[in-house]
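User: I'm new to structure prediction. If I give you an amino acid sequence, what do you actually give back? Let's try with this one:
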Amino acid sequence: MKRLATFVILGDSAAAGTGDADKNGALRGWSYYLAAHFNQPLVYANLSRPGAQSAEVFIDQLPKALVLEPTLSAVIVGGNDALRNGFNPDVLRQNLRQTLKQLREVGSEIILLQLHEPTKIAPLPKTLGKILNRRINSVNTVIRAVGAEFGAHILAVRDIPGIYDRNRWHVDRMHPSKLGHQILAQYFREILAPRWDISPVTIDPVTQRARKDSLLWMLRHATPWFLKRSVDLLPAALLLVMGEYLKILTRRDRNAQAVLYFPEFVNHRESGIAQVHEERVS
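Assistant: Good question. You get back a string of structure tokens that encode the predicted 3D arrangement of the chain. For your 282 residues, that looks like this:
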């Protein structure tokens, strides 16, 4: 008899499956499709929540996951941290380190996801887009460094061919579509297949959303979300843009931005010292 596997999902909307709901509105997402193709007994628990930041993952979701003693864990987080006022990559790093450390202590294998470049699918004003990309790059740097420290497997979304094709994204242009989630499941399956018995993930036929349906969705869902988040996002965005222009007006050098250092952990058999990566963020 094949061993029982326990697969837990921690994180935000990218983990919860936003962008891929069934006819009843229940979210599925890449982890659902991946779990459906396991050829061994599987306990599947998606503990993620849309909107979650790294602190919630560590404080609220992780304890529930540890009770299950997972053999495989996915931790997908960082995007909401980057979108909030007061974003601090070091806080993200600390929360992610503690989360991965405790999952490793119960013997769990871990998979992570590095974020795409958001302005390639959702164009923004140049200055704001530049700031957002810097923040997302700093999130990816944290994920890469912490993942390497704890031996996690990392899927870099930006390396997936054709990932910015429109049909791979939901109408909100922030989350994968059903096709996008199934493609992510395929790539995670490739990462895990050498150690887990998982069948190839199949891709369902793609149905194009009518323009009318897309507009109705935006009015019903995107507009209320935008208004709710504007209280937090807009003041932060305005302050960041103003700060960017002040740097230009005062001719401050780009290198005067805050400098953060994250260790790039390498196998000690290959190097006697830890490499250091420098990341600059607004």
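You can read the tokens as a compact description of the fold. Here is one thing that stands out. DSSP finds eight helices and seven strands in the chain.
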